[in-house]
Amino acid sequence: MMQYNQERVLSRLIEMIQIDSVSYQEGPMTDYLQKYFEDLGYEVYRDEAGKAIGGDHAGNLVIHIPGTMEGESICINAHQDTVEPGIGIKPVFENGILKSSGDTILAADDKSGIAMMMELLDVLKETGTPHRDLYFLFTICEENGMHGAKNFDYSKLPTKNIFSLDGAGNLGNMLKSGAGKDALTITFHGKKAHGGIEPEKGVNAINAAASAISRVKFGRIDPETTSNIGRIEGGGATNIVTDEVTFTCEVRSHTQEQIQAQVDLIVEACHAAAEEFGATVDIDIDHFCPPQKPNPDGFLAKATYQALVKEGYTPEFVVSNGSGDANIFSGHGFDCSGISTGMFDVHTTNEYLDMEIFQKAFNVVWHIMTEQCE
Fold first, then answer.
1. How far apart are CA 46 and CA 311, in angstroms?
2. pTM of the full predicted structure?
3. pLDDT in tens, 122-147
4. Superfamily for domain range 6-178+292-370
5. Is 268 annotated in the active site?
6. Catalytic residue of the set 26, 47, 81, 110
7. Which of 109, 119, 133, 142 is flagged as catalytic?
8. Domains in the chain: boundaries
């Protein structure tokens, strides 16, 4: 086991956690990281993704750490942004647990991943341990649509392996399949009329939307596919035939073909309902993220499995219907893996980081970075 410097990690975590960096406002965090790595003598690539997505001066960062051993190269990834409430966080460390003071998140998601990457580099430099060719990628706006990853120039990563430090919970799980998602915004257009005097002169968009929704199954479609209606809005006074109503929905599944099949059913139902009521319909489809399918026979899966076993875990392969930057990376042809950093109850004011699990996760990544895959 390679022991990290706990005092240094905690100090760095507490410092970074107090840098506000909610999505679209990660500029101070980007500045902090750029200065840190440049002060170490590394060349830092910084893009202008923040401006491109309507945020501040934040950007995705890439740092190349030249390898000193043979073997496949790896990009290690964490994201800079946090969810809200994430302003003015006051971290508290007690009995091996780092938490917030209780009225904000902690931001271990994902500053624990960032701190782990920085400490891994520190220990590599201090010990002179041979290691693979490494790239560190710090993305922005992961929490709000993976927009940093969607606006990144992947020619800056001459590797085929990306390992994300953005997992929550206990160690031991390995991703077998991650769902992709299409998001739909559907607007029905009818015709206004007085609802009491001459409703027959109107076309009620609510009726058309309700008919469309009733024609399609939502919820659990099959073991791998879900579909959900998120919002419906429109209309005004009860004496006015509603001329416009919008609803949003999503479809998640583990192949794009499965997603498309369900999307097609929704689209067909909407057109049929519009025709039935004499309405028209606009349908916007956002291919939010592609499915993620790690290669079970690839280097990264084998290296992760081997490292987990060395740390005493019996890896369990899991299927997830969540999504993150790794979905976007996979869509660009990268093979992806990742582990938990020991964070729990993320996206809540009860969020905390278990430093004992953090140490185990550190060891797992150390194995992957410094050892040959058997």
1. 35
2. 0.94
3. 999 999 999 999 999 999 999 999 99
4. Zn peptidases (3.40.630.10)
5. no
6. 81
7. 142
8. 6-178+292-370, 180-289
